Give the backbone structure.
Amino acid sequence: MAKKLLIVDDSKVSRMLIRAQILAVHPEWVISDASSGEESIALIEQDQPDYCMMDINMPGILGTDAAEKILEKHPSIRMVIFSANIQETHQSRAKAMGLAFVAKPVSEKSIALALDYFQCGN
Amino acid sequence: MLSEIQLDALAEIFNVGAGRAASSISEIIHDEVKLSVPSIEFKTSAEISPEALSLNHGRFGTVRQDFSGSFDAVAMLLFSEDNALEIVRDMMGSQMSLDDLAEFEQEAMCELGNIILNACLSAMADMLSISLDSSLPDYKIASCDDILHAIAHNAGQDYILVLNIVLTSAKRQTEGQLILLLSSASLTNLIQHIDGLVSGI
């Protein structure tokens, strides 16, 4: 069955790059996107994805705060924090929530790390 | 000058650069740091004024580095002189006196400029798949007029990319500017590389 992925990033270019790189590997996946943490919370209430890629620094709430709210209600979603904000505090917070942290930029390597976590839990 | 999608791509490039720089600065001052780029604007040299650069008429700590490669640019990082000293105090340890701080100001500000400018330009090089080399950083205290004069007399570099940057730590919030001076040919080259990134999606 095709997996559903939600991309949350305030940069349209980043959302487009992530989508293109994922579809190159998994053309059957159904991908939706949101440009803020608040929008992602609302979208997930309507249609729960299997996976989510979440930026941190966006207008409105931090991506890590949005992730925490989402996982309280939907703990089965596998989520990757995908951000340019690579400081230890944010990486530690992601790990404490049981999430993977992958550093931007969007590249074949960073997307492969996210996919590996989604599918193998590594 | 740039379309919405081109500006979005450029903003994301500087977002990645700012994230890398914040991580390095955080290690130096042993504190969490947020480095954000709330606005990006292109100007021509004819449009440059203190207001266009959000400069008051005080004195500024300026770090300059020249970048060359797939395109050429002069990069300048500006902080007000007071803010520059506070950043140096954070970098060197708050127990230092102001007199002692002045001794390290040049070295510390060059290091800060080197971190921020190289993080941004290396993010640009990585994301656009290009190569850029940089000169050593040069630190000067300058007045607003000195800065405008330097921009106006930078022969052939008629386009100016102005990024307002905000450096926030637990102790303080510091605003500054990152300025890239580009020739018409370099701007065209940069736009072509951004288009290559966007069209490759």
Remarks:
- The first strand of chain A starts at residue 4 and ends at 8.
- Chain A touches chain B through 20 residues (CB under 8 Å).
